[in-house]
Amino acid sequence: MPLFQFRRPHPASGEPPDSAADSASPRRWVRWALAALIVAGLHWSAMRWIEHNRQPTNAPPEAPPVQVELLTPKPIAPPAPPPPAPAPATPKPAAAPHTPPKAVAPAPAPVLSATTPQPEAPAAAPGVAASAPPTPAAAPAPTPAASSGDKFSVPPSGELRYDTLVNGMMNQTGTIHWINDGQRYEMVVSIPLPFVGPYVYSSKGHLDGFGIAPEQYSEQRGRRAADVAIFNRETKQIVYTKTPQNQPLADGAQDRFSVVMQLASLVRGAPDKYTPGVTRQFSVADNDSNEIWPIETVGDENVQARGGFTTARHFTRLPRKEGDRRKLDIWLAPSIGWLPVRILQTEPNGMQIELLWAGTLTQPTARQPDTASGTQGASDESALAAPETPQADNP
After folding, report:
1. Could you tell me if 315 and 329 are in contact, meaning their C-beta atoms sit under 8 angstroms apart?
2. What are the DSSP E strand ranges found in 233-349?
3. Of 70, 111, 130, 376, which alpha carbon lies 20 to 30 A from 308's?
4. Distance from C-alpha of 387 to C-alpha of 174, rounded to nearest angstrom
5. Are the beta carbons of 207 and 185 closer than 8 angstroms?
6. CA 94, CA 250: separation in Å to the nearest integer?
7. What is the C-alpha to C-alpha distance for residues 243 and 239, in angstroms, rounded to an integer?
8. Low pLDDT (below 70) residues in the chain
9. What are the residues whose beta carbons fall under 8 Å from the beta carbon of 232, sequence distance 6 or more?
10. CA dist 109 → 106, 112, 115, 193, 325 (Å)
11. What share of the chain is helix, strand, coil (3-state, %, to 5)?
12. Domains in the chain and their CATH numbers?
């Protein structure tokens, strides 16, 4: 077969056959591309129409927005006055002995005429005293309206034991030493940390019209010297040993750990008031500054502690300023008198320090008056006293 083959030109065309085929091929591809674009446009229009007119079936209802309520510190409500004692019953006089009436001679009937006035009421029978008109009953004394204020119930004294975890790894047992005698309080939190030494936070003071009132707060981290903050109630100033600056002391001001018991006392007094979305502001002093802590109620959650699972109310501290990366979460459990069953602090570098209840999760049964606020508070010693000896962790 020859390498080159010459074709004769088509007699009806003025151009060679190969050039005619080459010119028809681009036109065919243009028609196909135009048809594909038209089909794609029709499909897109149909899908848009279906999407616009489609109605969702069994769509879940939209969740109602959370009603956020901002609570600010205010005085504690005084205890309700006891009900008045009932008045003693007045003894009835003894009945006189019955004597038969004496016979009375009938009086002559009077002569009535048109000018004689007629009596409006029948006269009393002779010898019978006329009854006095009924006196209206004495109106009950008005009940004084209850004064507004925060309901408050300070937890009773107890030696609380917690498992401590650092970044999820089990550490030694920590303790919260809490004393409340109705007038003064003391709180010492000890958290052992490996290779660093224990972190010890101490708060002591008294109880006033705004609840827990710290007088001195100190924190010692490991082997470093303790930093102290003094709450001077006379000058209304907070003085620090770490810095020469002073700051004003607000009513109801707390320190970093007394705020936990202040929150627990408020929730113990009115647990139904702290629903999801409710945010309460606290003035909290650290070892060198004082700031506002907005603590929000997250909701009820299940927490697993050494004694098992229990329901606890979750509270979280909202960012105090833009870029705040330090977090604080608190879980208060009604089964142990609204004491903290879990405390989790997240440092800006990501390190997490956790306290997890290591006692028995029993429901308090006995109740006695709380001397600090006059309200009823849980006082089950088995739940609020020293928890039982630590056992092996559950698998």
Report:
1. yes
2. 237-240, 246-248, 254-255, 278-285, 290-305, 308-317, 327-333, 339-346
3. 376
4. 12
5. yes
6. 67
7. 8
8. 1-26, 46-74, 77-148, 362-395
9. 238, 239, 249
10. 9, 9, 16, 115, 109
11. 15, 35, 50
12. 158-384 (2.50.20)
Tell the residue number behind the tokens 């901002």, with chain if given: 70
Q: With H, G, I as helix, E, B as strand and everything else as coil, classify residue 17.
A: helix
CA 360 to chain centre: 24
337-362 residue pLDDT tens? 999 999 999 989 988 989 999 987 75
What is the Cβ-side half-sphere exposure of residue 309, based on CA atoms within 13 angstroms? 3
Q: For residue 210, give the DSSP letter.
A: T
Maximal C-alpha separation, the chain:
176
**Which pair of structure tokens corresponds to residue 241?**
């040993």
Length of the chain: 395
Structure tokens at 136: 């209206």
Report the alpha-carbon distance of residue 148 to residue 347 in Å, rounded: 38
The answer to whether 352 and 362 are in contact (CB under 8 A) is no
Q: Give the tens place of pLDDT for each residue, 197-218.
A: 889 999 999 999 999 999 999 9
CA distance 56 to 11: 69
Contact assessment for residue 337 and residue 364, using Cβ atoms and an 8 Å cutoff: yes
Which structure tokens are listed for 138?
A: 């004495």
